[in-house]
Amino acid sequence: MEDSMKSMKDPARNPRRERLALLVRTAVSDVLGIEPEDVDDTTSLLNDYHIDSLELMEVGARLEKALATKIAVSDLTSARTVGEAIDLLGARLAPAA
């Protein structure tokens, strides 16, 4: 039980978060024309890659299609790093407790 609690808190040990992270990294890399390995939790799309609003909307559209859910524009713009975006999406997609 304690080990399962650790995996929920430690992003590196949470398989659900890792699947979502791969999806986000792939969408970002496809839109920006970079390798998924170049995108990690600390990546700032604005500061590191100077992403513009159209590119950000394209990332959002790809994620909406892949996740079969609507993503608010404010969710796309509020995350400062890719890791924050992954965590925000994970929280939005989590089943209500």
Q: Can you put this structure into words, describing what you see?
A:
By secondary structure, the chain is mainly alpha-helical. The chain has a single domain (21-93), classed as ACP-like (Non-ribosomal Peptide Synthetase Peptidyl Carrier Protein, Chain A), CATH 1.10.1200.10. It has six helices and no strands. The protein has helices spanning 2-9, 15-32, 45-49, 53-67, 73-78, 82-93. The chain is globular and about 35 Å long. The model is unreliable at 1-8 (pLDDT under 50). It comes from Streptomyces tremellae. This is Carrier domain-containing protein. Residues 18-93 form the Carrier domain. InterPro entries: ACP-like_sf, PKS_PP-bd, PP-bd_ACP.
Would you kindly provide a brief summary of this structure?
This is Carrier domain-containing protein. The protein has helices spanning 2-9, 15-32, 45-49, 53-67, 73-78, 82-93.
